[in-house]
From TrEMBL:
Known catalytic reactions: L-glutamate 5-semialdehyde + phosphate + NADP(+) = L-glutamyl 5-phosphate + NADPH + H(+); L-glutamate + ATP = L-glutamyl 5-phosphate + ADP
GO CC aspect terms: mitochondrion
Name by which UniProt lists this protein: Aldehyde dehydrogenase 18 family, member A1
Pfam families from the UniProt entry: AA_kinase, Aldedh
InterPro entries, per the entry: AceGlu_kinase-like_sf, Ald_DH/histidinol_DH, Ald_DH_C, Ald_DH_N, Aldehyde_DH_dom, Asp/Glu/Uridylate_kinase, G5K_ProBA, Glu/AcGlu_kinase
Annotated GO MF terms: ATP binding; glutamate 5-kinase activity; glutamate-5-semialdehyde dehydrogenase activity
Pathways per UniProt: Amino-acid biosynthesis; L-proline biosynthesis; L-glutamate 5-semialdehyde from L-glutamate: step 1/2; Amino-acid biosynthesis; L-proline biosynthesis; L-glutamate 5-semialdehyde from L-glutamate: step 2/2
Domain Aldehyde dehydrogenase, chain residue ranges per copy: 366-629
Family under the similarity heading: In the C-terminal section; belongs to the gamma-glutamyl phosphate reductase family. In the N-terminal section; belongs to the glutamate 5-kinase family.
Top-level taxon of the source organism: Eukaryota
Single Gene Ontology BP annotation: L-proline biosynthetic process
Keywords: Amino-acid biosynthesis, ATP-binding, Kinase, Multifunctional enzyme, NADP, Nucleotide-binding, Oxidoreductase, Proline biosynthesis, Transferase
Organism: Cyprinus carpio carpio
Length: 655
């Protein structure tokens, strides 16, 4: 309610609540007398609650982050709030709820040890509201005096000059920020700049020194162009080289400030999701997750936002300039009610939000491109005859044995890197051997034989009317995303099942099996290539987070996690719009009845526990009928377990 009260006192409108604004304990900071006359600074602090501390930078500035996941390392961050983010839809006044959410995120990130700076718009809109109110009040009083009546004539508002609006609104805008940040015992400081403050060496040094001192004291600087005195922007004067950028709007100001202050990250919030390959309103527009400097020719710009003087083209130019200066940039939507409350924190955590600008273009396709390729090739795979799909699986089975030396060499490399990081059980799952590859090959051939009628099988046929029958037929699901942990033998198994059922496949394996997964994926694509369906199976080897993959609801039809119960729960939470075929932990019990066959019982117990104990479905509990105690069968089971070195472990667990 404190924000509402100060907002009311600054605009003249009634407060929403009866609270009043108390006095602020103030700290006066003065710039160097030789600095720009347009540089003003105010600060407010709740001194008793917030300690001073210095946050060291984690990396040497000069090179931007190459991948989104690296944004977690950002220590100095500039947040640019566009006019569309700060103002209401009617362009008169500020979006208070939106601003409060942004302030809360900035404070949270700041308390986690990062240095935060805000470049804000909104002074003109705030001042326009105040001036309109004053003009309406003045006109109504004059008309009442002249007419002598209570009824007022229609009043028309004059066109308000932007500089006057900025002058009237700047103090109110800053007071509102102060009130919001004070709720979290966080100090803010206002800095107004013009182009001259960056082009004059002495003024630039003064500005740089002031900002560094504020950050050292854990104060959040709030920077804006001094629109009350700034001249109109000159046309075609955006970029004049790597060391020069004309401050013509807050986009260029944020870029210049980020480079000048050696910021790690610039977050530009606007009223669009990010950068599209065509105007956002068009039906075929696709949001670009990552934008590279050489891709300008692949996009077209739509109209600029309803407020502000920039537009997306200005944002892109400023972002590329900042990127060239060593600052990473993300353009995102700061107005959407569903994401505004966490958009800044999501970006800092490396999540896929908005458009990320990167100088490092990956050698291979993006995960979105891989999914499109898999979907396209999957249609061809689904149209093949059952015998053709069986041939592909049989070829893959042959390749597993023919190229086993290559597979085992890659697996050995993975084992050497993982031996110090994984538990013995996990290492066992990661390990491949000639016998395991032979078993895999046999299993794939069984799939090839048994899946002849997987696609197109009629499950049910109903006669609806004369010469009209309704059939239920098995068809492919579409694109499957299978996420598995440190079990490379899972890759050919899942690939064979996907081929047999005519489904495209997107695979995300554990990084500990990267080399083995790569060679096994190459073999799967080699087998698919005999019918031109090489791209139907894709291996995601980029730094894509699983949570990001789960957001591709328009591309992926089903997610199948294979791993621990924790993995399954995490996937189910992350995939809000994609079906997840999860599994429970299972009950891996073996029960021996008093009438069971001796030979069969011994073989089953040995196979379920001793042959491959690291398997997730290995026997965990052996139940024996009480009538078998102290019988020859029970003694044979104990002897077998002793021979296999499992009796001591199982006996202790029983006790």
């Amino acid at each position: 309610m404190l924000t509402q009260s100060i907002y009311s006192s600054l605009t003249g409108f009634p407060a929403w609540h009866g609270s009043s604004l108390g006095a602020f304990p103030a700290l006066s900071l003065h710039a160097d007398p030789s600095s720009s006359p347009f540089l003003t600074l105010h600060a407010v602090r709740q001194w008793s609650n917030v300690p001073f501390f210095t946050v060291p930078l984690a990396r040497a500035h000069g090179k931007s982050f190459a991948h989104r996941s690296e944004l977690r390392q950002a220590k100095r961050i500039v947040v640019k709030l566009g006019s569309a983010v700060v103002t209401r839809g009617d362009e008169c006044g500020l979006a208070l709820g939106r601003l409060a959410s942004i302030v809360e995120q900035v404070v949270l990130i700041n308390r986690n040890g990062r240095e935060m700076m805000i470049v804000t718009s909104g002074a003109v809109a705030f001042g326009k509201q105040r001036l309109r109110h004053e003009i309406l009040l003045s006109q109504s009083v004059r008309q009442a005096l002249h007419s002598g009546q209570n009824q007022l004539k229609d009043m028309s508002l004059p066109v308000l000059e932007a500089r006057a609006c900025a002058a009237a609104g700047q103090s109110g805008l800053m007071a509102l920020y102060e009130a919001m940040f004070t709720q979290y015992s966080t100090c803010t400081a206002q800095i107004l700049v013009t182009n001259l403050d960056f082009h004059d060496d002495q003024k630039r040094r003064n500005l740089n020194s002031t900002l560094h001192e504020l950050l050292r004291m854990n104060i959040v600087p709030i920077i804006n162009t001094n629109d009350a005195v700034v001249p109109p922007p000159e046309p075609n004067s955006d970029l004049q080289g790597v060391n020069v950028i004309s401050i013509k709007d807050n986009d260029s100001l944020a870029a210049r400030l980020a480079v000048e202050m050696r910021a790690d990250l610039l977050i530009a919030l606007s009223d669009v999701e990010g950068l599209y390959d065509s105007p956002p309103g068009s039906d075929d527009a696709k949001l670009l997750d990552t934008f590279y400097p050489g891709d300008q020719h692949s996009i077209t710009y739509g109209t600029k936002s309803r407020v502000g003087i920039g537009g997306m083209e200005a944002k892109v130019k400023a972002a590329l300039w900042a990127l060239q200066g060593g600052t990473s940039v993300v353009i995102a939507n700061g107005t959407h009610p569903k994401v505004t409350g966490h958009v800044i924190t999501d970006i800092v955590e490396g999540k896929k939000v908005g458009t990320f600008f990167s100088e490092v273009k990956p050698a291979g396709p993006t995960v979105e491109q891989q999914t499109e390729m898999a979907r396209s090739a999957g249609r061809t795979l689904a149209s093949l005859e059952p015998e053709q799909r069986s041939d592909i699986i049989c070829i893959l089975a042959d390749l597993l044995t023919e190229r086993k030396d290559e597979i085992l060499s890659a697996n050995k490399n993975d084992m050497e890197h993982a031996v110090s990081r994984l538990s013995p059980a996990m290492l066992k799952r990661l390990s491949l051997s000639s016998s395991k590859l032979n078993s895999l090959s046999i299993g794939l051939r069984l799939i090839a034989v048994s899946s002849q009628d997987s696609v197109g099988r009629v499950l049910r046929r109903t006669r609806v009317a004369n010469k009209l029958e309704l059939e239920q037929i098995t068809v492919p699901i579409g694109v499957l995303l299978v996420i598995f942990e440190s079990r490379p033998d899972c890759l050919p198994q899942v690939s064979a099942l996907a081929i047999a059922s005519g489904n495209a496949l997107l695979l995300k394996g554990g990084k500990e099996a990267a080399n083995t997964n790569r060679i096994l994926h190459e073999l799967a694509q080699e087998a698919l290539s005999i019918h031109g369906d090489k791209d139907a199976i894709q291996l995601v080897s980029t730094r894509e987070e699983v949570e990001d993959l789960c957001r591709l609801e328009k591309m992926i039809d089903l997610i199948i996690p294979r791993g621990s119960s924790q993995l399954v729960r995490d996937i189910q939470r992350a995939a809000k719009s994609i079906p997840v075929l999860g599994h429970s932990e299972g009950i891996c019990h073996v029960y021996v009845d008093h009438e069971a066959s001796v030979d069969k019982a011994i073989k089953i117990i040995r196979d379920s526990k001793c042959d491959y104990p690291a398997a997730c479905n290995a026997m965990e509990t052996l139940l024996v009928h009480r009538d078998l105690l102290r019988t020859p069968l029970f003694d044979q089971i104990i002897d077998m377990l002793r021979t296999e070195h499992w009796w001591t472990i199982m006996y202790k667990s029983w006790c």
